[in-house]
Amino acid sequence: MPKGVAKANLPTKDCVVCKRPFSWRKKWARDWPQVIYCSQRCRRSAE
């Protein structure tokens, strides 16, 4: 039996800068509600 959740069933959000959808990552598990950028590049371009 596989563990965890299938990639297709992970939550997604849209990046506020590039408007592309991005999915949940394990490193964001603790603060997923505060994640608004898909990458460091989008974070830098927003500032």
TrEMBL record:
Name of one Pfam family that matches: DUF2256
Cited InterPro entries? UCP037205
This chain's protein is named DUF2256 domain-containing protein
**Species the sequence originates in:** Litorivicinus lipolyticus
